[in-house]
Amino acid sequence: MRPRNPLYIMAKPPPDVQAQIAALPRNDPGRGPELFHVTLMKLFDLYRAPPDWLPQVIAALDSFAGAAFPLVFDRIENRKAVTLRTRDPLPEARAFQAALVRHLLDRRAPMMLGTTPEPHLTINYHGDRLRAERMPPIGWTVRDVRLVESVVGKTTHVEHGRWPLRAKE
């Protein structure tokens, strides 16, 4: 069954990076740049979840002390959608995701899916059948994470909280 209101932990690019991404020729101009994001973790479908699950996740995130990390993409690829990716394994982002999973598990926060996808940023959900190509790097330092509900079919993100990350050491 397809989720109606999936809940994610996301990193969103700052406005100057959103503008760079929006200017890419393979970007879907019908979607607003405020929707650009990198999914760091998929949690569960908020529509079907018990009412206490969202407050439990928020409480767990309130005690999370993750470090800021860089995200840089230097490729455009068409898989099921057109995405920004990199061949760099993004070790700091992956370490952040692992720390986030451990933290939520330690606090017994609900996370039915609990998956940590390879970091990427979708710029066109329809795909374009063009080949993968290199591009000038686009990136930013992730300084906060957001708990976001995606309203399927409405092109809408509902933010349920934002947590700053500590400066890189």
Task: Present the secondary structure layout.
Elements: E1 6-11, H1 15-22, E2 38-45, H2 53-62, E3 69-78, E4 82-85, H3 91-106, E5 121-124, E6 133-142, E7 144-151, E8 156-164
Antiparallel strand pairs: 1-2, 1-7, 3-4, 3-6, 4-5, 7-8
Which key phrases capture this entry?
169 residues, alpha+beta, four-stranded antiparallel sheet, 8 strands, globular
Question: How is this structure best summarized?
Answer:
The protein has helices spanning 15-22, 53-62, 91-106, and strands at 6-11, 38-45, 69-78, 82-85, 121-124, 133-142, 144-151, 156-164. The chain has 169 residues and is an alpha+beta fold.
Task: Please explain how this structure is put together.
This protein is an alpha+beta fold and about 170 residues long. It is about 20% helix and about 35% strand. The strands form 2 sheets. It has a 4-stranded antiparallel β-sheet, with helices on one face. It has a 4-stranded antiparallel β-sheet with strand order 5-4-3-6. The radius of gyration is 16 Å and the shape is globular. About 25% of the residues are buried.
Bulk shape? globular
Helix content: 10-25%
Q: What structural category do the secondary elements indicate?
A: alpha+beta
Low-confidence parts, pLDDT < 50 over ≥5 residues?
Answer: none
Strand content: 25-35%
- Rg from alpha-carbon coordinates: 16 Å
Distance between the termini: 43 Å
Largest sheet: 4 strands, antiparallel
Number of strands: 8
**Topology pattern, helix = H, strand = E:** EHEHEEHEEEE
Number of helices, where a helix is a run of at least 4 consecutive DSSP H or I residues: 3
Mean pLDDT: 94
Strand sequence of the main sheet, in spatial order?
A: 2-1-7-8
